[in-house]
Amino acid sequence: QVRLEESGGGLVRAGGSLRLSCAISGRTFTPYRVGWFRQAPGKEREFVADIFSSSGATSYGASVKGRATISRDNAKNTVYLQMNVLKPTDTAVYYCAVNPAPGEDYDYWGQGTQVTVSS
Hints:
This protein is mostly beta strands. It has no helices and eleven strands. Helices cover about 0% and strands about 50% of the residues.
């Protein structure tokens, strides 16, 4: 079984920064792709960013592009999400998810970490 544990969330003022971490454990493998998603109260889950483990290729959601950087440390099986110039609209629960192999979906999800941005 794959376990994901997010950390690094908290309360930050608008304009500030946070780095979220996603530690992946429970199975010896390198995920094909790891993504970050977020969900604000009353809203649908939104894609934030993802990264392919082998190539390092990344993509970002429109709402965070230019303000977010996703990175990974394959040796530690950890993926990071650096968020800068945070806005109140970034307030949400942030989840990381693992897409284990090509052709599969995001099959494993963490419990989430709350990010609250005050104005």
